[in-house]
């Protein structure tokens, strides 16, 4: 059973998503390796995660994205590479791509994306190259002829949903709520462990080779008006709604220093411009994860909001 499962190297296993990817890979019986920096072992929180994953069967390889020779040695042991580094480290994947090209044995590369499709962003004048860096990595992968799958899961439930998309808040409102734009643009939410389950299913799937896999699960594609409606139903109360126009939000983005304004930029992208849903998956040539893998159960937005009551 296990011998025909691809061997997977995950970079960034101590991060929130990387940890879930490693767990999902091990749960699916893939021989799984994690590239880990030395500094992670002296960080209590990270070393605890590494201990948990090691107990479950993860093979640790000490190294970093800066060391092409160590990367090369690691790559020779695996078939698949998944990178889950933070957005700040996206450009560091250039050395990894070079090593993948040199190794010549990697059947699939999933670069660090796991957000909105960077090629479809309409906020490039505001995002301090957040999306253009990811697009640049895509172009390098394609130019080198490296087999890939791009996973675009849009927003993590852990990011904006706990506050019901209220910047600066930690919990959802009980009295009044700000709604951006007219509240009708739809965004998509996914929990990290669900994203990991879908991502791991793509690695040995011929259908997803050199494709973009989008996550648009039923029950998780919501406008702000719909989100507020779901929450009002749960707390049995109508909230006072304050509509913030596109111009007002843009002014706030420009008046707030970087990087503090990035949360507002993501809200503008998702809930005003509709960057996550303005195009159809079919016409884009992409694939939709829940249609590919209907057997995977996932947490809906409504179920997530139940946890906040």
From TrEMBL:
<feature type="domain" description="NmrA-like">
    <location>
        <begin position="5"/>
        <end position="305"/>
    </location>
</feature>
<dbReference type="InterPro" id="IPR045312">
    <property type="entry name" value="PCBER-like"/>
</dbReference>
<keyword id="KW-0560">Oxidoreductase</keyword>
<dbReference type="Pfam" id="PF05368">
    <property type="entry name" value="NmrA"/>
</dbReference>
<protein>
    <recommendedName>
        <fullName>NmrA-like domain-containing protein</fullName>
    </recommendedName>
</protein>
<dbReference type="InterPro" id="IPR008030">
    <property type="entry name" value="NmrA-like"/>
</dbReference>
<dbReference type="InterPro" id="IPR036291">
    <property type="entry name" value="NAD(P)-bd_dom_sf"/>
</dbReference>
<keyword id="KW-0521">NADP</keyword>
<dbReference type="InterPro" id="IPR050608">
    <property type="entry name" value="NmrA-type/Isoflavone_red_sf"/>
</dbReference>
